[in-house]
Amino acid sequence: MDALRHLQDELSEMERAGLLRTPPAAPASDRLLVLCSNDYLGYAGLALPSEVGTASGAGASRLVSGTHEAHLMAERELAAWLSVEATLLFSSGYAANVGTVAALARPGDVVVSDALNHASLIDGCRLSGATVEVVGHVDVEAVEGALVRARGARRRWVVTESLFSMDGDTPDLPRLRELCDRHDAALIVDEAHALGVFGPRGAGLCAEAGVRPDVLIGTLGKSLGLHGAFVAGSSTLRTYLWNRARSFVYSTGISPVVALAAVERVRRAAADDPARARLTMITRRLRSGLLALGAELLPGSSGPILPWLLKSPGAAVEMSRRLASEGVLVQAIRPPTVPAGTSRLRIVANASLSESDVERALAGFREAMR
Do you know which InterPro entries this protein is assigned to (predicted)? Predict the structure, then answer.
């Protein structure tokens, strides 16, 4: 008997609903314009350092023998960039979010979580054992109500993204900070999509708003063009996560080569106001061009993430297919990644696009919409 025979039935049902995902072919860089990556500053194509003596692999968990000088250098550079006491590198953004939230919140706590938080934050909330109150997207009044109801909880946590990865909008960070202070709650902010793009020296939307979260989570895999992630905050937070974040404790450390590259990328991003200005210009041109073509861009979206709502999964997949035939790569985003009825194309600007690239992309959109 085939104990996994039910899997094909479930896959067939997903296909009928237009929700089956299949591995895409690697894009041919000379043929396709890629408008769906998170490489906001165009750093992903940069070469890694080739310094002699830098190990390619950590060899073990950071707690065992996997800590190399490159890790410590990267953590110091990240801390200086974000003006915090300390940072801790994780193997991925998913590992950072899951491990941090699950380690900090406990049974008896209440976690107030935005309805559109990333899956990694949602999973961290679930694994924590805390009571999770999901509130409406960027609804500050709902957050306040949840905190009032949680007065008797052991501890209170508010978890949000600073730039939401699928909707491209941002919460009222100063108001969230004020509510957390008033209700003795800790503020956890995932800045994955904002770092490098917004704020002084690219230090993110919290820095731009003058807000200091209790826990800031960032990634090396978006604007810095690498892989891995980190948590930033106090030295006490770093020590606690070193001991209690299971996704850190039980994972091999990230490659020392990548950690060394992060030192250079952080310095580059911090000084790269020209790339940020170019990204803003390209984003504006794409946005205005798409709106002129009649694309239904999500209200409230800002920055380089441009969500084009197409309602049904089938419509999103079909438009993605048409765009690919016009030389533009934009993947369809469907449930469960986004709520039912909000399937979309997640169009993303990046600073490496030329003016002719943008015009070519808009021409491709025009043809695909016919």
Answer: Aminotrans_II_pyridoxalP_BS, Aminotransferase_I/II_large, AON_synthase_class-II, PyrdxlP-dep_Trfase, PyrdxlP-dep_Trfase_major, PyrdxlP-dep_Trfase_small
